[in-house]
Specification:
With 706 residues, the chain is an alpha+beta fold. Among the domains are: 403-551, no CATH class; 558-705, Histidine kinase-like ATPase, C-terminal domain (Heat Shock Protein 90, 2-Layer Sandwich). 75% of the residues lie in helices and 7% in strands. It has 28 helices and seven strands. The strands form two sheets. A five-stranded mixed β-sheet has the order 2-4-5-7-6. Strands 1-3 form a two-stranded antiparallel ribbon. The longest helix is centred in the last third of the chain and has 78 residues, at 437-514. The chain starts with a helix and ends with a strand.
């Protein structure tokens, strides 16, 4: 293979690694650049630039924005627009992304405009698609959703022509977010599901996380809070493994919002504080403002008004500096609510008037503001103003129910404007020539008739649009219900299958005893007892799992020594591991205490050790370890071969999922042990996951917060 072909292959490999593991890509490309810079051979500028491009892209993905910006500015100065237009355009695009990530929208827009001009007449469809998508993202941040949708749709069309699944998935995700902001949940869900399918085909973990995150948003909007919590938790796990602090902070903020809605205020406050700490380190004003707005809402719910006001004021200042209009309006509403709660009616009325004067304020905000305004005027006994505000509120409410499509509205406005101009012309002609009064009156009547017809047409359009949107919402709800029913039916079928197997064996054993076909009576009774125990374990596990699902299980939390708990379990398992035989090693820190339900956590460790004992080859090894860090307690159980496939590692916590079905059933497992472990850990606000072990088997990791 020639050196040029080898170089192209290396670049493709690095670009693929960049999409799936930016940390590894950054390490590899840094090594390559170091080698090129120290080589005595002449450097190929195109190859060197391609490696630098990958390096900056990896830094952006990992949130190393200062390093990315410094690198980008070096390239920007090195390659001028006249001699290196393509290099300059690609560098401008990277600098646009960096500035966009630090909320510098104006500078980002300038770089994107320059890049578009440089490649306008060049065959660079992939770069053009990325430029259109980022223009759409800027307009989305500025709450100009029509422009955002237009640019992102153009980017998606180009990605479809290129058959680039990675870009298709990314752009579907962006369009889904825009529709979510607009309020069209049906179309939003459709685009996010399409994005998730493409990301799963590609195996792109970050893309899967983004789709889970956004689908969680939709479930939150539909008030499906447990489903939203589940999706955001899964997204956080992936984000933490990939290491992008912006994505981690966003997942924390969404978990905070859902927990606040579930009235778990302490948990919500903990989540948002972790997210806020991350974005403060990055010094991204728009993200800091958003996190502070959530924190202010939590303080409001806790009744801590001074802290709420301080957080909201800081959030407003940052939102204004970053031109983050959506966050700005949300924070202004919080400040109004704080003023009302502090009985500062005049201050609240001033803030309401300021917010109503903002350009482009949505009808939802208008509705809330007029309602609050009417209530405050009524309390001040200013009845005339209160009545006017109430009328304004009713008018906006009426508009909210109409749900008229924006394009239809624009066409309606244009038609009405034409009629208005006709009427003005008719009046002018009437004033100029009184003798043509009858003709002018006729023109006026005709105009009125046309206006009425157009208004009637508009009402019919409103009715049609509303019915269509209702139908779409109904379809979404029906799909969700169908999915829930399918999951329940599958669970019932699996449970039935699990119960039928030991019952059949038990029936055969009893028939053998009944007809005296078993020469060894004692062995037959032992077998019967074994099957009854298996049934008892299965039913107990099903009952425990149902308790968690129905939120009926109560945790008896107290401060316990985790060392004593692990040692207790260790002593119980020593004879069983020696009998197999199989090695069992325990390594833990001393004097570690934590507030948990000791029996439930003990059950988790027992289930994991039982699992290791059952499925590890004879002569194998199991390691149980525990240590404490700044965030909580980490417990690991890992063993030697055999291991699990990547697919099994993801699905191993599903109810009744078996990696080796026949063997699992022979060993008496219910298939619910790991699912129960996950439910117990989640009830403690922790998390549990599985990964490959260095010993050749499986490693289960349990993280418990302090």
């Amino acid at each position: 293979m020639s050196s040029a072909a080898l170089c192209v292959q290396e670049l493709k490999s690095m670009q693929n690694l960049l999409a799936h593991n930016p940390t590894a890509a950054l390490k590899e490309v840094s090594t390559k650049l170091h080698s090129l810079n120290n080589s005595s051979l002449p450097i190929n500028q195109e190859v060197w630039f391609s490696y630098k491009n990958i390096e900056i892209s990896a830094q952006i993905k990992l949130g190393l924005l200062d390093e990315a910006k410094a690198n980008g500015l070096v390239l920007y100065a090195k390659y001028d627009a006249e001699n290196y237009p393509l290099f300059r355009a690609k560098t401008a695009f990277l600098l646009a992304v960096v500035n966009q990530s630090t909320s510098n929208s104006q500078q980002s827009l300038a770089y994107l405009t320059e890049a578009m001009a440089l490649i306008e007449n060049k065959d660079e469809p992939e770069l053009k698609a990325d430029l259109f998508a980022n223009l759409g993202r800027i307009y989305r941040y500025q709450a100009d959703y029509q422009q955002a949708l237009s640019y992102t749709s153009r980017a998606l069309d180009m990605a479809n022509e290129l058959r680039n699944k990675l870009k298709q998935a990314s752009f579907h995700n962006q369009i889904g977010v825009i529709y979510d902001y607009i309020g069209n949940l049906a179309l939003s869900l459709e685009h996010h599901e399409q994005s998730l399918r493409l990301q799963q085909q590609l195996g792109n973990q970050q893309g899967i996380s983004d789709s889970l995150y956004n689908i969680g948003e939709i479930y939150r909007d539909l008030n499906k809070l447990p489903l939203a919590l589940s999706h955001f938790s899964q997204a956080l796990v992936v984000d933490q493994s990939l290491g992008n602090p912006i994505h981690i902070a966003n997942s924390y903020s969404k978990l905070a919002q859902v927990n606040m809605a579930l009235n778990k205020l302490d948990v919500a406050k903990s989540h948002v504080e972790q997210g806020l700490a991350l974005v403060r380190k990055l010094n991204v004003p728009s993200d800091i403002s958003w996190q502070l707005s959530i924190l202010a809402s939590i303080y409001m719910a806790m009744g801590e008004l001074p802290q709420a006001k301080a957080s909201a004021n800081e959030a407003l200042e940052l939102a204004l500096s970053a031109q983050a209009k959506r966050t700005e309006r949300s924070v202004r509403m919080i400040l109004i609510e704080i003023a009302i709660a502090q009985k500062q009616s005049s201050n609240a009325l001033t803030q309401i008037a300021e917010m109503l004067a903002l350009p482009g304020i949505s009808r939802i905000y208008q509705s809330q503001l007029y309602k609050l305004q009417a209530e405050l005027y009524e309390k001040q006994n200013e009845l005339v103003r209160a009545i006017k505000s109430h009328k304004d509120y009713q008018e906006v409410q009426q508009q909210l129910f109409e749900h008229l499509d924006k394009q239809q509205t624009e066409r309606m406005k244009k038609s009405v404007e034409v009629i208005r101009q006709d009427q003005e012309l008719s009046i002018l002609q009437k004033e100029q020539a009184l003798q043509k009064a009858s003709l002018a009156n006729l023109e006026l009547q005709r105009g009125i008739v046309i206006l009425l017809l157009l208004l009637l047409f508009g009402v019919l359009c409103l009715i049609f649009t509303r019915q269509k949107q209702k139908q779409r919402l109904f379809d979404v709800k029906a799909k969700l219900l169908a999915d829930n029913l399918e999951q329940k039916n599958r669970l019932l079928a699996d449970v039935s299958h699990e119960l039928r197997t030991p019952l059949t064996a038990l029936k055969l054993s009893i028939e053998v005893l009944q007809f005296n076909l078993e020469p060894n009576i004692e062995r037959a009774y032992i077998k019967v007892h074994s099957k009854i125990s298996q049934l008892d374990n299965l039913i107990a596990d099903i009952y425990r799992s149902a308790q968690y699902d129905n939120n009926t299980l109560r945790l008896d939390k107290d401060v316990f020594s985790i060392n004593e708990l692990i040692e207790d379990v260790h002593q119980d398992f020593i004879p069983r591991f020696n009998e197999k035989p199989q090695g069992l090693a325990v390594n833990s820190q001393d004097n570690v205490t934590i507030g948990v339900d000791a029996e439930r956590i003990k059950q988790v460790i027992i289930n994991l050790l039982n699992n290791s004992l059952a499925y590890t080859n004879k002569g194998g090894e199991t390691r149980l370890a525990m240590y404490e860090n700044h965030s909580g307690i980490r417990i690991t159980v890992e063993d030697s071969a055999p291991g699990l496939s990547d697919e099994d590692l993801v699905r191993v916590f599903e109810r009744l999922y078996r990696c080796e079905e026949s063997r699992s059933r022979d060993l008496g497992g219910s298939g619910l042990g790991l699912s129960i472990c996950q439910q117990i850990v989640l009830a403690h606000d922790g998390r549990i996951y599985a990964e490959h072990s260095e010993l050749g088997g499986v490693k289960f990791v349990v993280l418990l917060p302090k």
